[in-house]
TrEMBL record:
Keywords: Coiled coil, GTPase activation, Phosphoprotein. Transmembrane segments: none annotated. One of its GO terms (biological process) is actin filament organization. This is Rho GTPase activating protein 25. It comes from the Eukaryota. SMART domains: PH (SM00233), RhoGAP (SM00324). Pfam families: PH, RhoGAP. One of its GO terms (molecular function) is GTPase activator activity. GO terms for cellular component: phagocytic cup. It comes from Propithecus coquereli (Coquerel's sifaka). Residues 153-347 form the Rho-GAP domain. Residues 39-144 form the PH domain.
């Protein structure tokens, strides 16, 4: 071979490597044999729809690293197949009323992976709504969501990303939902207690996750918008109150029975060490909920009721132990009640982060903004007396939390997240509403 031929061959090989396709990249990572040292992210039984006959086969699925493996039996060592997830789209499929009890979702591989696998999509079915939502959540995290996705994303990442749309203290979705509810839902009985339209909630969630910013028209069901807001809070990878401060907030709830002044002092300490984005969102929500309870004579949602239905979405334990969850629930309700009722004291407007325009991209003069805590070194608002703070609040004759807690709350199986919150909502749905 001549020198010129060798040079051409070398350049051709180098060029082919430099323009490696998505298919080739997937192939380089794809392994038909799982690495036993890699800890599974999730595993369990699902039904898989066959591509030609369209009937269902029960298979054992294991999500490990970037791939989803499936086996004929749980004890099998060799998988029947696997799916490479990065770049894939994960969608929940709405079923017909006559297909009630089918919880179906779809994995659509990236376009370059469809060519390699020879299959457009994989249709899977879970045994329950909760199980399907768990699978979809983990699969989406592994697949990687498109830029601008909102649900299941870290709060600080969403706030930072959305600064390009203008200055915002809280995620745009939260603003949109709150503004719509204040305009159309103040007179809606059972707001945040009654569920919205499930299919529409999913459609709106998918639209936000696709990078769209859908607007709600006047005909949009206000309970659907309220459910969307609760879903966003519930899907945060870490709750608004970080796990590291969970016990601290519970202590505040415990102190309310013995010494409310001390409880408020401890709560102010906990709020002062929240990350800035978490503080801003918690402050925004408590002010918003206070506006709703001012009309509780009509909407039947007092401070206590709102604290009960929203608190479990903002403050939750990292430990999925039913005993831990049951122990914490009444404390969460008490501390959430205090944050809504005394929001002017606990979240003074002087602590709000200033709304400044985002810095231009690649601006060397603009230092990166750290995820700092709030602190209490800024000028304080004039102190508001307890009497003045409470005098402006409307009180409604709602059933006490002690009655709820002493009743049926212990009768259902507790679990964190979607199932626990949905069970909680079923209890709340049965409340007798006051006639005030």
């Amino acid at each position: 071979m001549s020198l010129s031929q060798s040079a051409c061959l070398f350049l051709s090989t180098a060029r082919s490597r430099s323009v490696m396709t998505g298919e080739q990249m997937a192939s380089s990572h794809l392994s038909s044999t799982p690495n036993p040292l890699e800890r599974p992210i999730k595993m369990g039984w699902l039904k898989k729809q066959r591509s030609i006959v369209k009937n269902w086969q029960q298979r054992y699925f294991v999500l490990r690293a970037q791939q989803l493996y499936y086996y004929k039996d749980e004890e099998d060592m060799k998988p029947q197949g696997c799916m490479y997830l990065p770049g894939s789209t994960i969608k929940e499929i709405a079923t017909n009323p006559e297909e009630a009890g089918k919880f179906v979702f779809e994995i659509i591989p990236a376009s370059w992976d469809q060519n390699r696998m020879g299959q457009d999509s994989y249709v899977l079915m879970a045994s329950s709504q909760t199980e399907m939502e768990e699978w979809v959540k983990f699969l989406r995290r592994v697949a990687g969501t498109p830029s601008g996705a909102v649900f299941g994303q870290r709060l600080d990442e969403t706030v930072a990303y959305e600064q390009k749309f203008g200055p915002h203290l809280v995620p745009i979705l939260v603003e949109k939902c709150a503004e719509f509810i204040l305009e159309h839902g103040l007179n809606e009985e059972g707001i945040f207690r009654l569920p919205g339209q499930d299919n529409l909630v999913k459609q709106l969630r998918d639209a936000f996750d696709a990078g769209e910013r859908p607007s709600f028209d006047r005909d949009t069901d206000v309970h659907t918008v309220a459910s969307l807001l609760k879903l966003y809070l519930r899907d945060l990878p870490e709750p608004v109150v970080p796990w590291s401060q969970y016990e601290g907030f519970l202590l505040c709830g415990q102190l309310t029975n013995a010494d409310e002044a001390k409880a408020q002092q401890e709560l102010m300490k906990q709020l002062s060490i929240l990350p800035r984005d978490n503080y801003s969102l918690l402050s925004y929500i408590c002010r918003f909920l206070h506006e709703i309870q001012l009309n509780c004579a009509v909407n039947k949602m007092s401070v206590d009721n709102l604290a009960t239905v929203i608190g479990v979405n903002l403050i939750r334990s990292k430990v999925e132990d039913p005993a831990v969850i049951m122990r914490g629930t009444p404390q969460i309700q008490r501390v959430m009640t205090m944050m809504i009722r005394d929001h002017e004291i606990l979240f003074p407007k002087s602590k709000d982060a200033p709304l400044s325009p985002p810095a231009p991209k690649n601006d060397p003069k603009k230092p990166p903004v750290p995820r700092s805590s709030v602190g209490w070194d800024a000028t304080e608002d004039p102190p508001i007396s307890r009497t003045d703070s409470l005098s402006s609040m409307v009180r409604c004759g709602e059933p006490s939390f002690k009655l709820l807690w002493g009743g049926s709350l212990g009768s259902f199986g507790w679990c964190r997240g979607t199932a626990g919150t949905r069970a909680f909502e079923h209890i709340l749905k049965a409340w007798p509403l006051s006639k005030s």
